[in-house]
């Protein structure tokens, strides 16, 4: 067992070269390298990023849950609208309510984590010295936070579209049920406009019309559908409150993007000015080359004349 190698590894030393055999006087060339420990700044930056990426993982997981729950809720609503079993539909409505509560909790948790991420980044900007010290960490954290905010906004917009679509489908289903199951007092079929008015009356909890007395079972189903619409509208109000909570974050991101765009515009102007200066430089360079060529030709012609004169002088 090579004890020397173990000692070198434990001390962070690497010995390059031949190790002489015991009792040998011959020494081979050797070089010792010492691994420099990381600086305190690097250690602090790594620790900050490690803690921050724990928040990134938590926020990303919450956004994924929002997306997954949105799909589950949409599937449950489709099942409710396609079933005629009151017991089964009632059970599925309870499942939708539970899923909606989970979605709202996940969205709220994600928004709170984003706020925590902002506070942690702001701590690194407490003083100009700290901001300069952690400038690389700050940029990474801000980019990650903006990306997560974008993902959460997109997920909530998808949920909002899904809820609006389901509400429209429930309203259309109510109108179809009224047209199919009910008739006017004179026995004639109910037209689209009357069906829409009766559906709105149900939504407003006004079921005193004599038409609804024709079938209590159908009215019970319509009222259940109305309750579904109520749940959706309540969920939308919760969603709207969450969007209000995110509004400041989105506005702040917009301000940051405005600064970036202004910097890009300024850089573009500088680049354009630089291109013009480069064109001028190339033009001056071409002129200088032409002048140099002319000068060389003149000098060559003068030398040729002197040489020619010398040759003619010798011959004469």
Number of domains: 2
| Global mean pLDDT | 73
Order of secondary-structure elements: HEEHHHHHH
- Category by helix and strand content: mainly alpha
- Describe the global form: elongated
Transmembrane segments: 292-313
Domain T-SNARE coiled-coil homology: 219-281
Protein name: Target SNARE, putative
Organism: Trypanosoma cruzi (strain CL Brener)
Molecular structure report:
- This protein has helices at residues 3-11, 40-82, 86-123, 128-133, 135-181, 192-203, 216-315, and strands at 13-17, 30-34.
- It contains seven helices and two strands.
- The chain is mainly α and 316 residues long.
- Strands 1-2 form a two-stranded antiparallel sheet.
- It folds into two domains: 3-34, no CATH class; 40-250, Methane Monooxygenase Hydroxylase, Chain G, domain 1, CATH 1.20.58.
- Helix 5 (135-181) packs across helix 6 (192-203).
- It is found in: Membrane.
- One of its GO terms (cellular component) is endomembrane system.
- Its main location: membrane.
- Pfam families: SNARE, Syntaxin.
